[in-house]
Structure formats: C-alpha cells, structure tokens
C-alpha cells in the first residue's frame, strides 16, 4: 500500500489567459488530496472516496470505476474525478511498462471538487505518484508534473495548461508560460478563500473564452491584458507590496468578469472581501462558481465572507511550500 498527497492551489494571476500562451502565477495551498493505492492481483481499477468535497454533501461509493453512485448534483463531478484517476493510471501503466496492472485507489480530499482550487490536479498528481511508487518507480517531479498534465489534457479534451499540475507537483509559487514552468519566490501571502459551495464547468468556460477571443479582437486584447497583469504581478511579488498585488488582483478579476467567467456568487464574495478591507480579491480557477481568493492579513475578510449570502465556507490558506508528499 502506498500513499501520496498533493496540495491544492490558487491562481494569484493569469487563469484562462494561460491557455493562450500568456503567463500565469498559481501558488500551492495547504489543503491536500491524499491518494492511497494498492496493487491488485487482477487488472481492474477500483476507486473509493468518502469525501471528494470539502463540506456539504458527502459521497460514498466503491466498486469498479465505471459504476456510478446514485447522487444528485455531484454526479458529474464524481464522474470527472474518476476520469482523472483512470487517466492517471493509464500514465502509470505507460511509464512503468506494466500494461495490465490493476489497483485499489482510495481518495481523501480537503479540496472542494471543481471549485478552482486544483482538486483534479492534486488527485491526478497524488495518484500517479502513489501508483508508480507502488510499482517501485519514483518519478522526478518534472516528469510527474508532465504525466499529470497529459492526464488533464486528455480528460479535458485538449483544454488544459500546465499551470495546475506543475504547481501542485512542485509546491510554492510558480510561473507557467506555455511549456516553460518554474518556481518563483513569493512572500508569505495572507490568503483568504471564499467558497460558494458550487463548481464551474472548466471545459465549457474555457471554450466560452476561446469563442469570444476568436470572434472579437477586444476579447483577444483582454486575454493579452491579463498577460500584462501577470508580468507586472511577478515583479510586484518580488517587492512584497500587498497593496499593489491586491490592486492587480482586482483588475485581473474585472477582466475575467469581462470574459464572462465570473458569477453572481463569485462577484458577491469578491465585493464582500473588498468592503471588508482586503487588499484585493479575484475568482480563482475556471470560474462560473467555486472559489475566490483575497489578500487580507486581518480576520475581517474571513468574518465578512461568513456572513455573505452565497458564500458557504471561508478559510485562511497557508502557502504550501511542499508539493507532492510521499507518505509511505
Ligand atoms: O478551475 P481549475 O482549478 O481547474 O483551473 C482552470 C484554469 C484554466 O486556466 C481556466 C484552465 C487551465 O487548464 O489552465
């Protein structure tokens, strides 16, 4: 039996635009997905999870990965999570040459599924890492990130950047531009997360931005403007000026909103954070629902979010210095 965990992440800047070759700066946070694998005698894959969501509904199911539990809103999310595990195990079979190996896989996650905190990347990275080690192979972090990226790329039908998978495999703050992925220095950021209890559909949100960008030059310009924010944000990260970082996050949120990927609840949480005195706030990840991230060293934003209609959960998130963790 082998266990690995990987952290979630927030985007400080650059989601969506990163799909079109602009840079993005995500950073890993101390909310983890843990995956335990055990090699089976046969070639079957059995996936079990009791808590694929942070709170709210809890889903229990076992059996073959193509058996679906009888659940309501979360069914498509569970199917998606199972798809990532299937894809991860395909990568494991390919990289180890053990074409017909089977596994029992158990997932425990503190990361809201599909909420923009990198849940799928964390599950994918941890699953590949644990399953390869179960077969006696330890991948270098770069290879692990690359294999996880290929998994996401296939599951999301070509609409994925390397940002999530590289960030959660490596930990800390990273900069991703195309296939150029590296770690960068970041100050200790006072991150506060607000979660609306829901999730956006990454595929259709990415496709929506793509269609807008094809159709209108101003949408393409907006994507490029997000790239400019990222480049400015990177140099501000070096100075640690929270007020300026917050301001750039606010503008980034406005541009994402212009591209149609915000939502009423995300906007409500962003405004609640700003009203509470946060340096800045923006949606994180694909949008459409899910999470916002704000910068606030005081308790004010967390408290305000807890009283904001549409916000189901608010919490402070520490930067995760370590990416994938090899547990046993
Ligand atoms: O919502 P998440 O955490 O899966 O992030 C999606 C980020 C996008 O830029 C919209 C897509 C991508 O793969 O980079």
Automatic annotation (TrEMBL):
Domain of life: Archaea
Ranges of residues in domain GHMP kinase C-terminal: 237-301
Catalytic activity: (R)-mevalonate + ATP = (R)-5-phosphomevalonate + ADP + H(+)
GO biological process, any: galactose metabolic process
Pfam families: GHMP_kinases_C, GHMP_kinases_N
InterPro entries, sorted: Galactokinase, GHMP_kinase_C_dom, GHMP_kinase_C_sf, GHMP_kinase_N_dom, GHMP_knse_ATP-bd_CS, Mev_gal_kin, Mevalonate_kinase_arc, Ribosomal_Su5_D2-typ_SF
Sorted UniProt keywords: ATP-binding, Cytoplasm, Isoprene biosynthesis, Kinase, Lipid biosynthesis, Lipid metabolism, Magnesium, Nucleotide-binding, Transferase
Binding annotation for ATP: 112-122
Main localization category: cytoplasm
Annotated localization: Cytoplasm
Enzyme class: transferase
Stored SUPFAM superfamilies: GHMP Kinase, C-terminal domain, Ribosomal protein S5 domain 2-like
Record EC number: 2.7.1.36
Pathway of action: Isoprenoid biosynthesis; isopentenyl diphosphate biosynthesis via mevalonate pathway; isopentenyl diphosphate from (R)-mevalonate: step 1/3
Domain GHMP kinase N-terminal per the UniProt entry, residue ranges: 84-172
Required cofactor names: Mg(2+)
Cellular component GO terms, alphabetical: cytosol
GO MF annotation list: ATP binding; galactokinase activity; magnesium ion binding; mevalonate kinase activity
Active site: 164 (proton acceptor)
Function: Catalyzes the phosphorylation of (R)-mevalonate (MVA) to (R)-mevalonate 5-phosphate (MVAP). Functions in the mevalonate (MVA) pathway leading to isopentenyl diphosphate (IPP), a key precursor for the biosynthesis of isoprenoid compounds such as archaeal membrane lipids.
HAMAP family documented for this protein: Mevalonate_kinase (MF_00217)
Similarity field: Belongs to the GHMP kinase family. Mevalonate kinase subfamily.
Subunit structure and binding partners: Homodimer.
Protein name per Swiss-Prot or TrEMBL: Mevalonate kinase
Lineage: Archaea, Methanobacteriati, Methanobacteriota, Stenosarchaea group, Halobacteria
């Amino acid at each position: 039996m082998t266990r690995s965990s990987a952290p979630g992440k927030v985007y400080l800047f650059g989601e969506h635009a990163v799909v079109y070759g602009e840079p993005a700066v995500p950073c890993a946070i101390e909310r983890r997905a843990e995956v335990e694998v055990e090699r089976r005698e046969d070639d079957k894959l059995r996936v079990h999870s009791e808590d694929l969501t942070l709170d709210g509904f809890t889903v229990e199911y076992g059996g073959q990965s193509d058996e679906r539990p009888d659940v309501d809103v979360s069914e498509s999310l569970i199917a998606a999570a199972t798809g990532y595990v299937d894809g991860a195990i395909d990568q494991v079979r390919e990289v180890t040459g053990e074409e017909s190996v089977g596994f029992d896989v158990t997932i425990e996650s503190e990361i809201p599924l599909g909420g923009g905190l990198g849940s799928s990347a964390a599950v994918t990275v941890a699953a590949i890492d644990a399953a390869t080690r179960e077969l006696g192979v330890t991948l270098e972090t770069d290879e692990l990130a690359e294999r996880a990226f290929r998994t996401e790329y296939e599951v999301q039908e070509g609409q994925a950047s390397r940002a999530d998978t590289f960030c959660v495999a490596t930990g800390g703050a990273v900069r991703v531009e195309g296939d150029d992925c590296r770690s960068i220095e970041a100050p200790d950021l006072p991150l506060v997360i607000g979660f609306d209890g829901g999730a956006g559909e990454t595929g259709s949100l990415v496709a929506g931005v793509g269609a807008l960008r094809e159709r209108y030059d101003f949408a393409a310009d907006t994507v490029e403007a997000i790239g400019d924010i990222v480049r400015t944000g990177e140099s501000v990260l070096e100075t640690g000026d929270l007020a300026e970082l917050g301001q750039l996050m606010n503008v980034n949120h406005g541009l994402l909103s212009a591209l149609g990927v915000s939502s009423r609840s995300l906007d409500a949480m962003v405004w609640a954070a700003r009203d509470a005195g946060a340096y800045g706030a923006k949606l994180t990840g694909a949008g459409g629902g899910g999470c916002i991230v704000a910068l606030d060293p005081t308790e004010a934003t967390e408290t305000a979010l807890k009283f904001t209609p549409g916000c189901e959960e608010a919490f402070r998130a520490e930067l995760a210095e370590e990416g994938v963790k090899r547990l046993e």
